[in-house]
Amino acid sequence: MAALLLLLSVCLLAGGVFLKDLFTAQTGDEYPTITDWKRSYQAEAEIAQALEQLQQSPDKASVISRGSSAQQQLALTFDGLADRGTMQRILDLLAKYQVKATFFVDGLQTAEDPQTVINIKTAGQRVENYTLYGMGKMEKLPVERLIKDFSQAQKIISITTGQGPNLLKCNDTQYTDQLLQAAKAAGFKSVVSSEFYLNATQITSFAAAEAFVGTLRPGSIVAVKLLRNAEPVINEQGLAAGAPAVDKQPGLKALPALTDQPETALIAAVERFLIVLNKADYATVYVEDFYQHNGAGTAKITPAVSGPAKIAALIRAQVAELFGSRTAYAAAATGDNQAREIKTIFTTEPAIAYTFGGLANETAVADVLGRLKELDIKATFFVAEPEMQKHPVVLRQIIADGHEIGIAIRPKNGETAAETGSTIRRNRQALQEQFGVETNLVKQPWGAVTAAAREAVASLECRLIGQAVNVVQSKHQDYTSADQVMAEIFGRSVHSLARGQIVHFRMDYYTNDKLIGDLAAIIKQRKVDNIAYATAFDNPASNPANDSQYRIKPVGEILSHTQLLYQYPVDPAAVPAHVSADRPGLRVDEANVLPEVFKRYIGNKDVAYGKSTLGFSKMEARRLDNSGLIHTGDNVVFLTFDDWGTDAAINKILYVLRKHKATATFFILTNNVLHNPNLLRAIAAEGHNIGNHSDQHKPMAARDPKTAGQVILQDKQEYSQELALAYKKLQAVTGDMARHSQPLLTRFFRPPTLAISKAGVEAVFAAGSEYIVSGSCSTNDYKAESVPQLVNIIKDGIYTKNGEVKKGSVVVMHMTDSAAYTAMALDILLTANEAKADADPSKFKVGRLADYLTEGYSQINRRQTLQLTAPAGQNI
Ligand SMILES: [Zn+2]
């Protein structure tokens, strides 16, 4: 068993090499950013399973190329992803004309911009799989390669949307038998081909749209290929389907081969098409609705489940293959000689970095410097060698203003690591000798970052700096107002930036010299300052002790605060055994589930027989705890926060708790957590407990609206796997964190919606959770209408009618952005509580669940647990 676990972890660690090998072997190209996302989306098990499935069955996926012609309907697909602003405009159009569409999204862009894909799903449209990066001519690839590609893409999209696509589409590819077998083995029931493509450059008038619609027939599948974001730096160069990255130089403004505002032309063409489609009385359906017409049946597709031993054997074989190969081994051994591009710094520091580049437009630079001074921002400026020579006065001014300097490089095609290295060395020397500046920061602001460049940066012990947000994009060149740019860069759903993110501004691109300065100021105001806790009675401007404001700092300064940096994912070896994900869960089956659940379930008064206790008999349900109180003699209440949110929501809660020296328990919904591990880490860094709230928020029992009865949404095994995945994510970010040598990650589980079922409870224990904690007070804070209303709800939850503390109350709140009043309500309650005398029976202290739910705690043994009190040193 131990050997198996070791092998598995070796396999996971080797994931990077595995993927790198997979991409480099076939194409000879480098996809150097893979290291950034592969950690979050390990698909080795799925790949192994699909490979095994392929050996067992030669079944092929069916091909959907059209649907029934009996009705005036057709299916519309969008293939690939454009930038978020364009995608939002497309979604708005579809809503406006009430059109259904199927979006085939590729794995890499989904990993890069998950929010866009979430937006598609939220808008009610279908999301399906467009392979890992929409590569063309895939029929030429070996079958194993296809399976790796499909499975990896499927993993990324499933994690992002919470459900696996059923359909696959390959870009410009012939569907050979081999490809169809690979698709089937990877879990797809069908692959899709389109008869018709909408060509935006041709649909320039209604007449043209009408002519195009005239060629369609009922049952047609019409595809729109989306333009890739033409900005290579943001788009992960080289990954675009059939569209080579456009390599841009600073100062070089006229770019060939880019149509004027291609996105605008596309949107206009799509709108004309939709209008004409409506006029022609075509209804639109999802491609999946055409499935039945292809005679392939309606069975729900689930990947074949095979024995864990078989999967392990396959993984072992893969690992052996990997390390048996000389090149792979060399790559693994020397994996560290390639600098990782830092886009978000893994830190818990409440800081964001601004970086700037492009000195050619001295007016714009001067304006930026003035703005930064006004805003009291210190930033990092990346300077290229010719700029040092051409603009020394400007550079001296930047340095004099106290900003940090880094080196901008642009390796030539085919340049070796040694050549790039000597450029960097020369630039460092020039900066030192002529400007008195030392730096180890290097940025390649445009073009593909090659392996040679990474190697050069690493060999000189420099850091390679990328960005999480690229403010200046090619298509915005003539935009005149910051509002125009903001809408396209952030869309509606991005409430705030996140701690550790690097935001890059290019100063030599806009026609409007003041636009970069405007953007630097507006991004701070709208996406950074709004993260701070700012109320009438406590805000960073009036209260110097209010430290809730995120600071904008140079990259190097954030990187120098090493005590706040961390390794992500956390090294499994650093995780204490008690909270290790490898530790087997409680052995609970139908025979002994009852004693355990009576002992380990802290319930809720609304969870009652016939409503949300599926599988428990009436007698059993009666014995389940419904008090929601932790048994204790202390005047203690437990604050708990569920789900997940942005920095803007969670930072406010963290500040209020810190201000009142209170520690709480955060039950994390994990499906989006790995997009912002810094924030989760920051919660634990303040001493709060971390608990599991599942990965997908599927309740253990739900009400079937048809029968009004309760149903389960996942079987026991599926549910247990989901919870284990959620726990692994929590461990990957917080597994090594402890306070007073007590781990902050806990084995506590909060049921989504608080509903429970017998099978669900068994799955919870099997997945390693030890206590199920609902609570005594459901605040419904996400729908509170005002602060006073919420304060009263919480008061009712923690005080008896006589005004005494309800000992052991567990208050259920949320950390979502919708829970807008939660932080302020708590601030008010905790401030009032602090003002009370210690002997006042209505004075409570705030506890963490881990201090009370210690080993041996039993919800049915009151006498034993009444003696438990908080350990010494606990605050309040
Ligand atoms: Zn929840």
From TrEMBL:
Pfam families: Polysacc_deac_1 (PF01522). Residues 72-285, 635-842 form the NodB homology domain. This is Polysaccharide deacetylase family sporulation protein PdaB. It comes from Sporomusa termitida. PANTHER family: 4-DEOXY-4-FORMAMIDO-L-ARABINOSE-PHOSPHOUNDECAPRENOL DEFORMYLASE ARND-RELATED, GLYCOSYL TRANSFERASE-RELATED. One of its GO terms (molecular function) is hydrolase activity, acting on carbon-nitrogen (but not peptide) bonds. One of its GO terms (biological process) is carbohydrate metabolic process.
